[in-house]
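Researcher: Let's do a round of design. I'm pasting the structure tokens now; please hold your answer until I've finished.
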């Protein structure tokens, strides 16, 4: 430790005014406490410049890390799944690929394996229906309730329903009225109007009334539905109206109908009870108002109206009602409120033709007078934002209409349409139909479009369902020798992947001819009576973007199936998925180049990634076909599966390096590699299997009838089981074929690479494929876990969780569970709840955990099992009691078991365990376990290194520090519990340690023997926060010293505690060092506190304690420190003098005085600053002399001048003070000042020069104080100050001989008198001390001689002359002896 540097010699400043001298800016910066090392290699100030480059480097690394974030394999695969989902959702909306204009392009395959639709099964008409039909007297009608797998037939006044899929169906009939039935419609009822058993309502219109018949639906196994009819006693008269069209809103339950006698639109109103002005059932005319709307129309020979409604449709997505009249006029009504219906658009066929005339100059298919609209099909807002309606003409043209809102704002589902225009016209296909199945029909974009094809002339009916599946019924004629169905489906693969990616996707349709044939060639079948979708309405996305992507749903949803009702039965037609088409081409393909030709055609059409995904699906058994039993079955043909496997492996492509990224970074990296189409195919297949569950929540809460909550799976369990089976098949396929797949085949694949680029690409491919495999395993086990969860009493399990975890479980999705860290944590909570639930019910923990590991091993690992066992031991200890032998044994066993899994023990379980240990007074075990968990969670000691590096903000090590801190907080909790438990208990009883004292001793032993430096630091911080600083003094640990030394750098309280700690353990010299540095520090300490530290340091530095520690410092180092302390203490004392002097100095006042006092009452200033800025400028001459003394200043002129000023100042102050009886005389003030300074200056020869001061004071007494005071007060001042008699005598002797003014001539008398006085006192002192007179013979001779001269000179007064004579005689006598 370096000594305090000696103060420099003060320089005399220029003359100035004291009032303005001590400015704040002149104050130099004192040495700051951080310069005190306390064992550290460098101060914080000196190390800051060295740390700066390191921080910059870390920042740059952080930026790099954020851009290429390190992901786990599962997280990387989850990102791939999300990207693939987003890719499927980017499928263009109908508005985007159905551009404004005309087209006639259809791809009509001649190869049946490429056909977009497939006939599934024919269901014959039941014999009972045929018998009733043969008994018909007037008319019959037929129709479908396809969504219920039921058909209906009206025979005169009777309505019969039957399940057409049942070979022996039971007829359900409505025969309770006598009138002829004219129309039947199935609608959804309004809420809370009917009993819960009524799910739907049959609207049955007769020639007299409309009846509302309740329909009950009972779901049975195998998809069978039993229907039952309920009498609602609701009917309204429609006599004379000839009702033929009925439509209902599934969203609101409103019912509309029209008759053949007018073009009016009526609404059938119904409610639960009658009201004052409304019956339970009634009708409202929304088009003709007034008295005529309630009077039946009766014809008395007048010509009937020529226009009436032939079709009505409701679009609930836009709240619109469409009507089509017999003269092809379209009217659109908006359901503005639940009770109103407003006509907003009236579009005639002529206006439609005018719109089309802007697109095509002339076409007989449009402009002929015989052309009419035979059907209309609404397009929902989910499918298209602008396109709202498709019209079909009797010439086979499909006209797509777009509507615009009345307001300026863009269209949305709630906008009221103001106008409707033709957007696109799809003309019939060419009559030749010569395009082969394996050729791509180029979209002509309006060029060479055939607008005169009569292939679909005599179209009598059409049907459309999302996302564009259309069936057109064409009667036989010149262009068609037989009645035919023309089936249309958009080619989603080519729409999603146009041949030119930069171009807008084109409207690409598949077409297929399906002749209408009866059971035999001889028996004609007739045209379809009705058509409907059997399966759930298609929707790949809730928005137009992505809605029509049936490729995305081919493994997730049942393929769309359409039922067609004929007079002899029902026939079902299914939309074939791409995977079905691909399986069929592998099985029945007719390409001239065989399978390879078919595959190349697929690749050209749909891309390599899509085909590898499809081939993989076929190889995993996803392909289906209609078998000989007219059932849709999986394709299991060995050749087909093998060919699909080969296509997946051989056409999967290779990973490629993005050369642009490589050129930018000049570094080959696996992050610059695009995985192979094979990887993309696997990702596509996995994504499409998972798409319905990936973003779904796992559980949903439903209210029970009694007001409770019931937990239900958001995704039905059969659906989960189906997804899991498909994923297991995928995993099995990849496991069996990994040796043939680059990226999965292992290290031998590296032997086939030839360049560095190929090696990097193969590594990237391996990482990508392994990531998908890892996610695949997690998903399979995750689904198993969900199935296990719902096998248990899930309500009890979820409710047993704490509120925070329960809410997080409610929000948890399958994605989070499969791939998220939070999901893993929540599943562990659920596993724990399952185990605890079973244990509470008496189950054995091994049985429960073995079952969990068998079904979902990753969710219940070996470590989880150990934790459960430890918890079981803890439970047994609780049951046995903490003071029993078995209870303590179970506690110790649980502790050992928990320690085995300390590395992975969740904090929540640790906290709960600590609480249980505290409750059972197992304090030492709680501390030991907590410290072990903290240690195992941070084996690399990242937290400690983070703290030592200055705790940078953006650093991954901060997380480890947070984990450790949470554990340490638990230790604090245990300490408080220990102190609370032992507060009122004695330590010993009858000389034996009490149990409470023993437990406390064990607890603190665990704490004190811990070698965790970070814990000790945390603990000491906590002690000080609690105000327990005395506890630190009681700890004999090296960690305490290290802790206090580090904290002392920035905190004075810790430094104060450090020297107290050293003093407590008798390390006095170390305490003195700390006190010295505190006095020198830059902390906010007042000057008095610094002087106190220096005073204590001076004592401690001079105290020697017995022991080895005291010998560790050399004598020289001790002396250096002691000297530094003494010098600094003197300097501080001077500064304190200046401070006290300025406080009472009236020359300074106000803000300036406050500033000066603040400068002085703080760090100890340098000696030259004290002199130049304060003491000299303020005229504190006595303090200046003290500074000379400390600084070893030897300039005699300066010293003499300062003494002169001091004496003059003292005299002036005494003279200027107000006189009083008790006030001192000026000479007394001067004498006292000189006497005091002599003592403070230790009679220094330099700063207290008697040869200078004595003449100066004699002159002062002679000139300024003549005749004042005692005769010899001047020499008495020096003698009192301890100046030797000899010194005073010599100075006076010189004055006597030199005769310097004013002491010459008669003025020498004071000098002569003082000479005699000093000689007399000197002789008396010699006699009193027993020494030789005057110190020896030589001095005695000199004194004798001088006395003789003085007597001869005559300068003495009478009294002194007598004394001098006697004194000289005595000296002569002594000399003669």
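Researcher: That's everything. Go ahead.
Model: Designed sequence:
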């Amino acid at each position: 430790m370096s000594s305090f540097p000696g103060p420099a010699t003060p320089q005399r400043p220029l003359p100035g005014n004291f009032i303005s001298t001590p400015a704040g800016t002149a104050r130099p910066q004192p040495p700051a406490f951080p310069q005190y090392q306390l064992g550290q290699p460098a101060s914080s100030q000196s190390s800051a410049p060295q740390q700066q480059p390191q921080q910059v480097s870390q920042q740059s690394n952080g930026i790099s890390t954020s851009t290429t974030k390190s992901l786990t394999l599962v997280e990387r695969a989850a990102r791939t799944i999300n990207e693939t989902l987003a890719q499927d959702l980017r499928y263009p909306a109908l508005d985007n690929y159905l551009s404004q204009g005309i087209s006639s392009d259809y791809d009509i395959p001649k190869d049946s394996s490429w056909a977009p639709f497939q006939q599934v099964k024919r269901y014959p008409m039941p014999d009972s229906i045929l018998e009733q039909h043969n008994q018909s007297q007037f008319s019959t009608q037929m129709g479908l309730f396809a969504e219920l797998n039921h058909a209906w037939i009206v025979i005169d006044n009777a309505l019969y329903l039957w399940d057409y899929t049942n070979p022996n169906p039971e007829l359900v009939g409505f025969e309770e009225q006598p009138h002829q039935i004219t129309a039947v419609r199935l609608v959804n009822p309004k809420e809370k109007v009917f009993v819960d058993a009524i799910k739907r309502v049959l609207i049955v219109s007769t020639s007299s009334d409309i009846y509302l018949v309740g329909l009950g639906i009972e779901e049975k196994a195998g998809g069978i539905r039993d229907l039952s009819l309920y009498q609602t006693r609701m009917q309204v008269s429609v006599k004379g109206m000839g009702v033929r069209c009925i439509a209902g809103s599934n969203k609101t339950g409103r019912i509309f109908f029209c008759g053949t006698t007018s073009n009016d639109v009526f609404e059938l109103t119904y409610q639960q009870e009658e009201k004052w002005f409304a019956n339970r059932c009634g009708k409202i005319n929304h088009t003709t108002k007034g008295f005529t709307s309630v009077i039946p129309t009766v014809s008395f020979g007048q010509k009937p109206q020529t226009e009436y409604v032939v079709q009505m449709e409701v679009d609930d997505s836009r709240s619109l009602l469409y009507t089509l009249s017999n003269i092809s006029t379209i009217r659109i009504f908006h359901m503005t409120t639940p009770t109103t219906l407003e006509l907003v658009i009236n579009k005639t066929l002529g206006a439609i033709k005018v719109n089309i005339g802007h697109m095509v100059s002339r076409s007989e298919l449009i402009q002929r007078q015989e052309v009419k609209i035979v059907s209309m099909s609404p397009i929902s807002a989910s499918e298209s934002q602008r396109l709202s309606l498709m019209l079909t003409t009797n010439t086979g043209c499909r006209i797509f209409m777009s509507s615009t809102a009345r307001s300026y704002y863009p269209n949305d589902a709630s906008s009221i349409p103001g106008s409707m225009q033709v957007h696109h016209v799809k003309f019939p296909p060419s009559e030749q139909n010569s395009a082969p199945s394996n050729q791509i029909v180029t979209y002509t974009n309006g060029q060479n479009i055939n607008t005169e094809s009569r292939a679909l002339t005599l179209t009598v009916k059409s049907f459309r369902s999302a996302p564009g599946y259309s069936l057109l019924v064409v009667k036989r004629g010149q262009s068609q020798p037989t009645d035919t169905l023309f089936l249309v489906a958009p080619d989603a693969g080519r729409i999603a992947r146009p041949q030119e990616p930069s171009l807008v996707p084109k409207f690409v349709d598949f077409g297929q001819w399906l002749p209408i044939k009866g059971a035999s060639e001889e028996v004609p079948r007739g045209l379809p009576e009705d058509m409907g979708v059997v399966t759930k309405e298609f929707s790949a996305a809730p928005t137009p973007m992505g809605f029509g992507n049936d490729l995305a749903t081919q493994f997730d949803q049942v393929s769309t199936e359409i039922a067609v009702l004929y007079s002899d039965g029902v026939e079902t037609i299914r939309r074939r998925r791409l995977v079905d088409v691909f399986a069929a081409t592998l099985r029945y393909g007719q390409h001239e180049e065989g399978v390879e030709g078919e595959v190349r055609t697929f690749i050209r059409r749909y891309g390599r990634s899509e085909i590898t995904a499809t081939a993989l699906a076929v190889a995993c058994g996803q392909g289906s076909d209609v078998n000989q039993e007219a059932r849709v079955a999986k394709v299991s043909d060995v050749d087909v599966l093998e060919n699909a496997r080969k296509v997946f492996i051989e056409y999967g492509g290779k990973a490629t390096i993005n050369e642009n990224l490589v050129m930018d970074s000049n570094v080959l990296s696996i992050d610059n590699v695009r995985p192979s189409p094979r990887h993309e195919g696997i990702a596509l297949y996995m994504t499409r299997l998972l798409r319905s569950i990936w973003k779904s929540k796992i559980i949903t809460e439903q209210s029970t009838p009694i007001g409770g909550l019931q937990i239900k799976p958001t995704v039905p369990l059969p659906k989960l089981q189906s997804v899991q089976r498909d994923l297991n098949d995928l995993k099995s396929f990849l496991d069996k074929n990994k040796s043939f797949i680059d990226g999965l085949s292992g290290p031998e694949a590296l032997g086939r690479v030839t360049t560095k680029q190929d090696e990097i690409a193969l590594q990237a491919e391996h990482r990508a494929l392994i990531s998908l495999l890892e996610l695949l395993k997690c998903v399979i086990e995750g689904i198993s876990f969900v199935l296990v969860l719902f096998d248990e009493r899930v309500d009890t399990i979820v409710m047993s969780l704490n509120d925070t975890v329960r809410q997080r479980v409610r929000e948890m999705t399958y994605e989070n569970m499969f791939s998220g860290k939070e999901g893993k944590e929540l599943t562990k909570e659920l596993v724990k709840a399952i185990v605890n639930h079973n244990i509470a019910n008496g189950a054995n923990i091994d049985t429960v955990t073995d079952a969990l590991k068998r079904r979902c091993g990753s969710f219940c690992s070996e470590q989880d099992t150990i934790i459960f066992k430890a918890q079981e031991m803890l439970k047994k200890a609780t049951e046995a009691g903490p003071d029993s032998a078995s209870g303590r044994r179970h506690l110790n066993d649980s502790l050992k078991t928990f320690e085995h899994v300390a590395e992975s023990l969740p904090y929540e379980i640790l906290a709960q365990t600590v609480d249980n240990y505290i409750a059972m007074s197992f304090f030492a075990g709680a501390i030991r376990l907590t410290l072990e968990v903290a240690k195992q969670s941070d084996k690399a000691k990242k937290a400690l290194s983070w703290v030592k590096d200055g705790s940078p903000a953006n650093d991954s090590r901060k997380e480890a520090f947070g984990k450790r801190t949470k554990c340490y907080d638990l230790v604090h909790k245990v300490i408080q519990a220990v102190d609370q438990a032992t507060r009122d208990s004695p330590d010993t009883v009858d000389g034996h340690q009490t149990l409470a004292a023993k437990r406390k001793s064990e607890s603190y032993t665990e704490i004190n023997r811990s070698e965790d430096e970070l814990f000790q630091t945390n603990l000491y911080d906590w002690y000080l926060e609690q105000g327990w600083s005395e506890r630190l003094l009681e700890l004999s640990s090296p960690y305490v010293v290290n802790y206090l030394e580090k904290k002392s750098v920035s905190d004075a309280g810790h430094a104060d505690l450090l020297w107290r700690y050293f003093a407590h353990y008798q390390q006095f010299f170390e305490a003195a060092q700390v006190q010295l540095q505190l006095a020198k520090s830059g902390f906010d300490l007042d000057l008095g506190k610094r002087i106190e530290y220096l005073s204590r340091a001076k004592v401690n530095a001079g105290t020697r304690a017995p022991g080895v520690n005291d010998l560790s410092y050399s004598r020289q180092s001790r002396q250096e420190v002691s000297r530094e302390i003494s010098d600094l203490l003197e300097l501080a004392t001077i500064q304190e003098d200046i401070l006290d002097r300025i406080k009472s100095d009236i020359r300074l006042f106000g803000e300036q005085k406050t500033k000066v006092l603040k400068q002085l009452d703080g760090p100890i200033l340098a000696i030259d600053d004290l002199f130049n800025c304060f003491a000299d400028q303020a005229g504190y001459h006595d303090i200046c002399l003290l500074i000379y003394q400390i600084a070893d200043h030897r300039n005699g002129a300066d010293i003499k001048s300062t003494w002169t000023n001091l004496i003059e100042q003292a005299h002036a102050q005494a003279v200027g003070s107000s006189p009083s009886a008790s006030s001192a005389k000026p000479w007394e003030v001067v004498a006292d000042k000189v006497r005091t300074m002599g003592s403070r200056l230790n009679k220094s020869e330099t700063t207290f020069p008697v040869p200078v001061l004595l003449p100066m004071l004699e002159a002062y007494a002679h000139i300024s104080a003549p005749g004042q005071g005692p005769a010899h007060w001047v020499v008495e001042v020096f003698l009192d100050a301890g100046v030797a008699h000899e010194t005073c005598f010599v100075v006076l002797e010189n004055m006597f001989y030199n005769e310097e003014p004013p002491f010459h001539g008669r003025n020498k008398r004071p000098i002569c008198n003082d000479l005699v006085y000093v000689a007399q006192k000197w002789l008396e002192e010699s006699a009193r001390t027993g020494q030789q007179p005057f110190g020896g013979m030589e001095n005695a001779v000199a004194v004798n001689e001088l006395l003789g001269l003085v007597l001869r000179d005559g300068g003495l007064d009478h009294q002194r002359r007598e004394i001098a004579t006697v004194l000289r005689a005595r000296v002569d006598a002594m000399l003669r002896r």
